[in-house]
Amino acid sequence: MMKASLLFILSFLVFSISTNSSFTSAAEAPEPVLDVAGKMLRTDRHYYILPVANVFGKFRGGGLTLSGIGKNTCPAAVFQEMSEQENGIPLAFLPVNPKKGVVRVSTDLNIKFAYPKTCGQSPVWSIDNYVYPSGDSFVNIGGVVGNPGPKTLSSWFKIEKFGYQDYKLVYCPAVCSYCRVICKDVGIEYQNGKRRLHLTTDYPLRVVFKKA
After folding, report:
1. Residue 9: enclosing H or E segment and its boundaries?
2. Where is the signal peptide (predicted)?
3. Among 120, 96, 102, 106, which residue's Cα sits nearest to residue 175?
């Protein structure tokens, strides 16, 4: 009788620990990013990043695209379309740990245009001047997918909630525990009459995601 009771108690403890661990893991998982249709962003699909006009009307225009810096075609960098009618180029989001293929907020990820190499560079987003981003730091291409660590710090971004239904893009990589990182939002800077993506602490680009 005592053996049966002891076996029951042990079984109950194991069940309780397993259940609590499952609940804890579920509770700790960041919420998924949703597109404009209310569906979760998936790692195997492409999306347009579209701006949300804020109350000041500071950011309008269209989706995100590639364009040459200055008067040259190459090198290329990430810009915003000037026309609200243009969705830009579709993009993929590739999390550092792509569990079940879902893109989640506050999670390190790579952002990649649905294009082959442009100007001899990979279509993966990358930050220039990321070591000392106290000055101008712009969003370019030529980044690396995966391989998290100090050598790929410039290629990691995050999606964060910004308001009730909107989001913002953030540069704040956590893929290197001992690396010094200055976290900033992704915003817009006017450069030669075009809207170029850069890092800012003032006016984040408020965005939503639309399935391509």
Report:
1. helix 2-28
2. 1-21
3. 96
Can you point out the beta strands (E) in the chain?
47-51, 64-68, 76-80, 91-95, 109-113, 126-127, 139-140, 158-161, 167-171, 184-191, 194-200, 206-211
What CA–CA distance (Å, rounded) separates 197 from 26?
A: 35
What's the pLDDT tens digit per position in 10-50?
A: 344 334 444 444 444 445 889 999 999 999 999 999 999 99
Judge contact between 160 and 106, C-beta under 8 A.
Answer: yes
User: Which of 192, 189, 182 is CA-nearest to residue 71?
Assistant: 192
Radius of gyration of the chain measured on its C-alpha atoms: 21
**Which residue's structure tokens are 């790692």?**
43
Neighbours of 125 (CB within 10 A): 27
Predicted TM-score (pTM) of the model is: 0.83
